[in-house]
Specification:
292 residues; mainly alpha; two-stranded parallel ribbon; globular
Length: 292
């Protein structure tokens, strides 16, 4: 068994910050939908960050709650973007029911945020959320990608193609790999791009169902994640805690029968094995809460 150790992510939000998160994204969560329904996607992405802070602070029950919230909001935001107008959603919290509309556009169009949401949806086995993300118009993602390296367009397309089991996935991965070369980068830091690009061989190995190649690529991907997210100010970024793209692919690999020989704090077992953070079965954790 190979272990990839994490960097020292100096992230300890403390009880006061966690209480603030509960206030902002917990009890007031449905109110935010009703007050500004166009922000469904943004609320989901904020909840993903909150889950990471809660995880770092050892508050596993909050971690579970925020991941569930995040993916429900992401799903609603994606449907809104696909519809180009509001879609009705319903949500229950503390026994009270709420209804409202979720409208686009959304921050979900940014390639990095889109991939973060899709990765967690896949890793947490929330197939409906991942399917909803497939409906986000590609033209909006392409427009948002103009602010970063062009490689992110075929890279996002490859992830979408991969999830939908389309035959053009290998070609899209090859195209993205070429554009991720340092000479082709524009506005993206090479180390940041490398952290994403390292998942291309991982996805290719999963397509080939090559266990040895997959585990070797997983080690490289985790080291690339650590090289970018484990240094400087990135160490305290919520995205540093979990290698979400690698986690999504590792989760799928386990589901498809590949034995993992790699462990890392960047790949929490509860995440890639489909358990809740407490380690006990929770039928509601992977349940889609929103109804159209």
């Amino acid at each position: 068994m190979t272990e990839v150790k994490t960097a020292k992510h100096q992230m300890n939000p403390g009880p006061s910050i966690l209480r603030s998160l509960v206030s902002n994204l917990g009890d007031a969560y449905p109110e935010k939908f009703r007050g500004d329904p166009r922000k469904a996607g943004e609320i989901g992405l904020s909840a993903l960050s909150s889950a990471a802070f809660a995880l770092a602070g050892g508050e596993l029950s909050l971690t579970k709650r925020y991941y569930a919230m995040a993916l429900d909001a992401v799903s609603a935001g994606a449907r809104a973007m696909a519809a180009g107008r509001g879609v009705m959603i319903s949500y229950k919290i503390d026994g009270k029911g709420y209804k409202g509309a979720a409208n686009g556009p959304s921050k979900l169009a940014l390639p990095s945020e889109y991939l973060r949401a899709l990765s967690f949806a896949i890793a947490l086995r929330r197939t409906k959320v991942a399917d909803d993300l497939m409906t986000v118009p590609l033209k909006e993602i392409k427009q948002a990608a103009r602010e970063v390296t062009p490689a992110y367009v075929p890279y996002v397309e490859a992830w979408r193609s991969f999830w939908q089991k389309a035959p053009d996935t290998p070609k899209l991965l090859e195209k993205a790999a070429e554009l991720f070369e340092p000479s082709a980068l524009e506005l993206t830091d090479p180390k940041e791009a490398a952290a994403d690009a390292a998942n291309i061989p991982l996805m290719q190995a999963l397509l080939e169902m090559d266990e040895k190649k997959f585990n070797a690529a997983l080690v490289r991907a985790l080291k690339a994640h650590k090289a970018w997210w484990g240094t400087g100010p990135n160490r305290v970024d919520p995205q540093a805690v979990i290698a979400h793209q690698s986690a999504a692919l590792a989760s799928l690999a386990l589901q498809r029968g590949i034995k993992l020989t790699v462990t890392s704090g960047y790949l929490p077992p509860w995440l890639i094995e489909g358990r809740d953070p407490e380690g006990s079965a929770d039928p509601d954790f992977h349940r889609d809460v929103f109804d159209e």
